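As described in the Methods, two query proteins were run sequentially through the folding procedure within a single session, without resetting any intermediate state between them. The first query and its resulting structure tokens are shown here.
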Amino acid sequence: MFERYTERARGAIFLARYEASNRGSSLIEVEHLLLSLLKEDKILLGVLPNDIPEAIRTVIEQSLPPRDQRVPTLDLPLSAASKRALAYSAEEAERLGYHIIDCSHLTLGLLRIEDCAVARILHKYGIHSNWYRPIVGGEAPAPIQPIAPWLEDSVASLEDLIARTRKHLKRYADVYGEQPVLQKSWTRKQALGHLVDCAAAHHVWLARALTEPKLAASGYPSENWISAQKYENYVWQEIVDLWAALNLLLIHVLARIPEDKHDLECRIGAAEPIPLSKLFERYVELCEGVVASILA
């Protein structure tokens, strides 16, 4: 199974097994993989500020259950999420033109698992696959940009919403998307289409917030756009993918919002101005409310 792995990558997996064993886990989880890569991924360690690896390690260790009885190392299999990370690492190596799989590809594999706490922790510190992949490919590192503290909770909530719902929604065929949602004259397709419109609008607003001293927009996307754009005739699973992709891109942009934009004045339509931080809080609340109606 590990023929294509470098000696250091095989060592990282063995070290992850050791981390799991010492913590009494019956599986090698993605958290154990990350703990080992924070020691073995020399490319990542070479581009991160010195304090970040230890900060991430502390967060990971605090998230794990208390140490229990040690489990024999040889008996530990990979968890389902860890297997996915290894599969993604092989894809990342091939994508970058490498026949072998090294520790940096394992890190990229972890970053690809959107529905796990490990990826969200890395994102919090500005470590995204789109930032790290070019570095692994040989490009000079771009400045690392952790998410501003005032955005952390909202970004974490949006990442969690995407992770919790995308796979669930994609399991269903078009007939599921054509069913009505509660308390609205929309189908599920139309409700998610409205969220697509809102995500697109917020992309424009965030770009303007980054480049203008104030933000003034004509208003939120009209509900009349839903029927005009015929979301009900579009493929359900493609609407789900589009909604998720737009929000992941939105998170990518939010990671680049500087601290001094916290109180930037945003006026949407005729409403009273609100700070940028509140604008995004309301967006996440809207997403959570509409997704809840779709799932109901």
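Immediately afterward, the second query was submitted; its sequence and tokens are:
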Amino acid sequence: MTTSGWDSKLLSIENPHFLQTEEWAEIKAPIGWTADRREWKDEDGRLAAAAQLLVRSVRPLKIGPRISIGYIPRGPLLDWEDDNLRLRVMRDIETWSREKKLVFLKIDPEFELGRGIPGSSSDSPHDAGMQVCEELKSRGWRYSREQIQFQNTVILELEGTEEDWLASMKQKTRYNLRLAQKNGVKVRPAILEELPLLYQMYAETAQRDGFIIRPEAYYLEVWQKYIQAGMAEALVAEVDEKIIAGLVYFFMGKRAWYVYGMSTSLHREKMPNYLLQWEAMRAAKSRGCLVYDLWGAPQVFTKEDSMYGVFRFKEGLGGIVVRTMGAWDFPVNKTAYFIFQQVIPRILSITRLIRRRQIRQEVQ
């Protein structure tokens, strides 16, 4: 793993995140985001908290004055149960937001509100998470209507043996995994030259499942940059040496994240996605990861939720639901914040429609 000075510092914190790395700032720079990095040390001079704050100047209606907004993706990074540290960090980033004259600052740390499906026997609330949310409200923060990242996710614990992993899976999942192994599906690491093929499969998946993706150049840059930095790996599944599915997972510290999955319509009955996840789990464990994050779970755990089908797949792997506090906004300019929140959703609805049409053309 080749890391910058900033990335190396993040590794000294208990739960670093790949969205807080220097690589992510470099990816966002061409579209106008600038990075400002802050550190907080303890009494012994050791790094106790860190945040990469991204700022962008925008003109929402393409006319009129420009406004600045800020975002700390999956941060700030700190022990959120350390009251003194948390208050110190929040006070400093609030001051920073005012100094930068932001309209608002958004954060979405992965601090848990609980585990399990709400209202079920697996539901295990985390009282400290709720207390932090109440504290944020009292400081003028608002739960955001625009959740950039998934608020809920599903994780797999990688401690224990592979036999333990299999035992935690649902019977149907174990069956499908063995089916893929018996039916000649082979999984291997992808090479950089195969990344455009992964994008084509990703575009096909988006068209088939009805979700919006970005242009090809964006994904190729993200995948290649993190792979070359030693923080990501792409895997492909083959049948008769023909690539039929793939995934890209990221890793940093003791955690891995499955972020991108893609497949064609070929040999879907051979269940390649089950074997891909199994091999990604094994690879993440070999890299020292203790948690494999399946990246996303429904906001509401009902069949009507668009993510419910994907969630059932993740649940079958033995996944544990983790509910986090989600995204919170700190409005510095309350009037401009109100206007911004009313305008952007309308713009997004139009751009998503245009992008959906572009994806259809790319697949065809």
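Residues 155 and 320 are 5 Å apart (CA to CA). We note this only descriptively and draw no conclusion about the first query from it.
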